[in-house]
TrEMBL record:
Organism: Dankookia rubra
Name assigned to this protein: Trehalase
Keywords: Carbohydrate metabolism, Glycosidase, Hydrolase
Domain Trehalase-like N-terminal span(s) in chain numbering: 2-143
EC number: 3.2.1.28
Cofactors demanded by this protein: phosphate
Similarity section: Belongs to the glycosyl hydrolase 15 family.
InterPro entries reported in the protein's UniProt record: 6-hairpin_glycosidase_sf, 6hp_glycosidase-like_sf, GH15-like, Trehalase-like_N
Biological process according to GO: trehalose catabolic process
Ion transport recorded as keyword: no
Main EC class the enzyme belongs to: hydrolase
GO molecular function, one term: alpha,alpha-trehalase activity
Substrates-to-products reaction catalysed: alpha,alpha-trehalose + H2O = alpha-D-glucose + beta-D-glucose
Keyword Hydrolase set for record: yes
Classification of source organism: Bacteria, Pseudomonadati, Pseudomonadota, Alphaproteobacteria, Acetobacterales
């Protein structure tokens, strides 16, 4: 049976990411990029679809894991009566090559170990041709892909799998290095496993030391920021929503999507979290990615792009994979790329506004893009769309989409007022005010004393919790308190917040999913703003307990099963964690020391 989602940790090189199970198996890895076809796809199928497992020959009595402080270097300790070993995992990127480094370090006694390496390409469909090179490395080739395995232990083949059995004694270290390169490139040099480990540890710790993380939740915030950085591509600046595809939002369900792309919304919120942590370089890289990705006609703006700004993300199903614990279909690509989601204009222009406030040097091209998007939104804001949750049902006038259209106009107006940028101030102010009045008139249900999911509807939506966070209305406005109370009544499940009631929604899919973790953090943010700090702290600390043993979160949580669900690790969840920790910390400071929250500037 497949491991639980929370039984995985991740390693990465800021171009791709591997999921490493508590059993020592790498069950998911796409090479060379996050969105490339997987060479280890056991996560969505079986071991026959590719994996790399290093573990004791007999089940360990105790397994513990940790990251080296401030890094993405993973240490998994296996203990048994006969001995103990630590498996150290990390990744690096060289020119034209990706290295996965695994070192087995003897800690106590003597322990018999086994390695099983099933090398596959194209999501486990292609079995490569394997041969031995003169320098002792094992080579596997299929089409454009090549893997090289370098280790000192004897290897043998067994049912299309490379196997090694060896013993490790205290004080001994056994290295393994698996290198990916294009098959048509010259053979790369053999890296030193210990040197790679030292370099990756030092680089990550140097980056972490630059951050502004302190206080009682510093460890959780730091781990989230490291995870967010690991989801940002080092060369393009694009930020993926998660490292996986098709991990289900409901166990054995069909709400299974490919998240290995750059959602404008998720990327901008990730950017805000990194800037809040003191990482301005990532903000500048993201802005350059954005300018490249959206270049062209403004009416062609997409809600998501590929890592380098690719626009065609055609969705298809991989019928040869059984799915995570049977959840089908397995999808690659994402048809939501063609949707209209008006809220992304607000998230984008809010992020650009905060980049200015953070001191990112002015850029004429960036302001030109903002002006173009603002003027385009003026023509679009009163149209129905698919909304933040990417419903695959009919378009509607989603309240949150209109709120974020207001945010877009508001941030553009502030660009002129606060930074002296050039633009039609009077026109933009007038449109901003018109949107505000429209939302308050059509998006609020006076009988329910709450904002609603869409104009004319009665259903609620957790995205409404963002209304005070973006500064659309102050928290003391009675409509905010009424909306929070309604969401508490109707969308809470075992104390966690659902996005909306899927049993009543017209979203084109069967009902059922977990509680959306970001929404639960948003409720805690509202508690902070409403002065309900004890409740905010209690909810936040309960959410922290949902992280796995190495501090990672998926997209959702299933309270009935007591398990994480959805793609992993999820940028949206870690962004919300960072934001709520900051809001709580600021609320507990003296008033004169506080700064504004996410977007509602002072």
């Amino acid at each position: 049976m497949a491991l639980r989602i929370e039984d995985y940790a991740v390693i990465g090189n800021r171009e791709t990411m591997a999921l490493v199970g508590r059993d020592g198996s790498i069950d998911w890895l796409c090479l060379p990029r996050f969105d490339s076809p997987a060479c280890f796809a056991a996560l969505l199928g079986t071991a026959e679809n590719g994996r790399w497992r290093i573990a004791p020959c007999h089940p360990a009595a105790r397994v513990t894991r940790r990251y080296r402080p401030g890094t993405l270097v993973l240490e998994t300790r296996f203990e048994s009566p006969d001995g103990a070993v630590t498996l150290v995992d990390c990744m690096q990127r060289r020119d034209g090559a990706t290295d996965i480094v695994r070192l087995v370090r003897g800690e106590r006694g003597r322990l018999a170990m086994r390695m099983d390496l099933a090398m596959r390409f194209d999501y486990g469909r292609d079995i490569p041709w394997v041969s031995r090179l003169e320098d002792g490395r094992l080579r596997a080739i299929a089409g454009p892909d090549r893997l090289l395995l370098d280790t000192s232990v004897p290897l043998h083949g067994q049912r299309m799998t490379t196997v090694a059995e060896f013993e490790v004694v205290a004080g001994e270290t056994v290295p393994f290095v698996l290198t990916w390169t294009p098959s048509f490139h010259p053979l790369p040099a053999r890296p030193s496993a210990t040197a790679v480990l030292a370099e990756e540890t030092a680089e990550w710790q140097a980056w972490s030391a630059r951050g502004r993380t302190e206080g009682e939740w510093a460890e959780a915030v730091s781990r989230s920021l490291i995870t967010l950085r690991a989801l940002a591509h080092r060369e393009t600046g694009g930020i993926v929503a998660a490292a996986t595809t098709s991990l289900p939002e409901q166990l054995r369900g069909m709400r299974n999507w490919d998240y290995r792309y750059c959602w404008l919304r998720d990327a901008t919120l990730t950017l805000l979290a990194l800037m809040g942590g003191g990482y301005v370089e990532e903000a500048a890289a993201w802005r350059e990615w954005l300018l490249r990705a959206v270049a062209g006609s403004p009416d062609k703006l997409q809600i998501m792009y590929g890592l380098a700004g690719e626009r065609r993300l055609d969705e298809r199903e991989l019928t040869f994979l059984s799915g995570y614990q049977g959840a089908q279909p397995v999808r690659i690509g994402n048809a939501a790329a063609g949707q209209l989601q008006l809220d992304v204009y607000g998230e984008l222009l809010d992020a650009m506004h905060h980049a200015r406030r953070a001191g990112i040097p002015p850029n004429d091209d960036a302001w030109g893009l903002e002006r173009t998007l603002t003027n385009r939104l003026i023509d679009l804001w009163d149209q129905p769309d698919e909304g933040i949750w990417e419903v695959r049902g009919p378009r509607r006038h989603f309240t949150y989409s209109k709120v974020m259209a207001w945010v877009a106009l508001d941030r553009s107006v502030r660009g002129i007022e606060e930074f002296g940028m050039k633009g039609p101030l009077a026109q933009w102010r007038a449109v901003r005010d018109r949107i505000h009045a429209d939302v308050c008139r059509r998006g609020f249900d006076t009988a329910r004393n709450s904002f609603v999911q869409s104009y004319g509807a009665t259903q609620l939506d957790a995205s409404l919790l963002l209304i005070p966070l973006v500064g659309f209305l102050p928290p003391e406005d009675p409509r905010i308190g009424g909306t929070v109370a309604a969401i508490e009544r109707e969308l809470l499940q075992d104390g966690f917040v659902r996005r909306y009631d899927t049993s009543k929604a017209q979203d084109g899919l069967p009902p059922g999913e977990g509680a959306f973790l970001a929404c639960s953090f948003w409720l805690a943010d509202n508690y902070v703003m409403l002065g309900r700090r004890d409740e905010a702290r209690a909810l936040f600390e309960r959410l922290l307990t949902l992280r796995n043993d190495v501090g990672l979160l998926a997209e959702e949580y299933d309270p009935k099963a007591g398990r994480q669900v959805g793609n992993f690790p999820q940028a949206f969840s870690h962004v919300a964690l960072v934001s709520t920790a900051g809001n709580l910390a600021r609320a507990e400071k003296p008033a004169e020391q506080r700064s504004g929250h996410r977007a509602a500037d002072d």
